[in-house]
Model the fold of this input.
Amino acid sequence: MAIKISEELQEEIFEWEKNYQRLPVRWIAGKNLHVTLIPPWESEEAEKVSMVLKTLEGKVGKSFEIVFERVCYGPRKEEPRLIWAEGKAPKEIQDLKTRVENILGQRLDSRPFKLHLTLARFNSRDFVRFPIKNLDEEVFWRQEVKSFVLMESRLLPEGAEYEVLEEIKL
Done:
């Protein structure tokens, strides 16, 4: 379950990435950019989940805004393996996550939701070769969230590919 990144925000991200093309990373393709609401789980019942989600259309909350405020290495500074954008998680996103988890019977994660958007992946062993060791750049990227999606992920040698199976409007 995820929030897809709009084409407008993708353009802002691609513009930012132009300044960092010398980094030895695998940039995430625009169509794969998303904020994870509920982490992937194994399910042979995608059709059933999709049908349940369709019944939620217009009933799980109101639109809200997410704002990314900085880009840095993550998820841990001691052993980075991602470039990601971070922001403060609005209450609405945590509420949406909890409601969908409850409806789907998914195990609730007790940790607070961390708003982040993966922009690139790399092997942490390669970090020693990076020309930029300290990445902590302020940004102001915003997007109004009007829907969320059920996605299927496929692991390929060049990275994960995501396909939207269902979009649920708030």
